[in-house]
Amino acid sequence: MDAYRTEDEQVEALKRWWKENGTSTVLSIVVVFGGYFAWQAWQTRQETYAESASINYQQLVQLAAQIEQEPTETRYATAQHLAETLKADYADTEYARYAALLQARLQVSQQDLEGAEAELRWVLASAPEPALEQVSNLRLARVLFAAGQADQALALSNSVEYGEFAAAFHELRGDIYYEQGDTTAAREQYQSALARGAGDANTAPLVKMKLESLPRDPSENGDDPEQDD
């Protein structure tokens, strides 16, 4: 009987404990497990979101490669649709920014400089990381220059950080000054571009050619342009 009484007492004690603490215990369990499953669901959604953005971007990259081989209106239209989808549905991802950058390149190939400018300004407005911001500013300055807005292109190049694209910026500034007839400034910019590596081995010869094609500066050899022979 003592054993049963002891078990009965244990059961009663358990009942009392459950009455006093059961509800809060269940709620704690629900909160813990609910939070865990909510976190798992959020992670799954994020992974699915990123994967979907990646798939769309890869399709755009593949399409751009096809356009380079065989441009067609249908392919250009599909590329624009993919880029707009990424910008609309995945605007907070790097995929959207790179899609806009790629779309700008395609628009330049179509001579749609206004469209390319809009894409590049969208990238810059989306708070990109520094390297992407620099390359976007460089391409925007090139687009402005190609569109006949040399002053705006020069002003932009004066107001931004060059970063690893310093050589390319100096080359562009040299092109702008040359078109404006300021060969002295153009020479300085081309020389600066070469001093900073001129981008890479492929662009350095072109910069050298631009520099060498400039009218010779008499001061380089100590000649006096006012002196008669």
Provide structural commentary.
With 229 residues, the chain is mostly helical. The chain has 2 domains: 53-128, no CATH class; 131-215, Serine Threonine Protein Phosphatase 5, Tetratricopeptide repeat, CATH 1.25.40. 77% of the residues lie in helices and 0% in strands. The protein has helices at residues 2-69, 73-89, 94-109, 113-125, 130-146, 150-158, 166-179, 183-195, 204-212. Helix 2 (73-89) packs antiparallel against helix 3. The chain is elongated and about 110 Å long. The relative contact order is 0.05. Residues 224-229 have low confidence and may be disordered.
Structural class: mainly alpha
Quaternary organisation of the protein chains = single chain
General shape: elongated
Describe the sheet with the most strands.
Answer: none
Number of domains: 2
Kindly report the average pLDDT value: 83
> Given this structure, which CATH class of the largest domain is correct?
Mainly Alpha
Strand fraction: under 5%
The low-confidence runs, each spanning 5 or more residues with pLDDT under 50, are: 224-229
Order of helices and strands: HHHHHHHHH
Break the fold down into its secondary structure elements and pairings.
Elements: H1 2-69, H2 73-89, H3 94-109, H4 113-125, H5 130-146, H6 150-158, H7 166-179, H8 183-195, H9 204-212
Helix pairs in contact: 1-2, 1-3, 2-3, 3-4, 4-5, 5-6, 5-7, 7-8, 8-9
Sum this structure up briefly:
The chain is mainly α. It is 77% helix and 0% strand.
Key words describing this protein structure:
mainly alpha; 2 domains
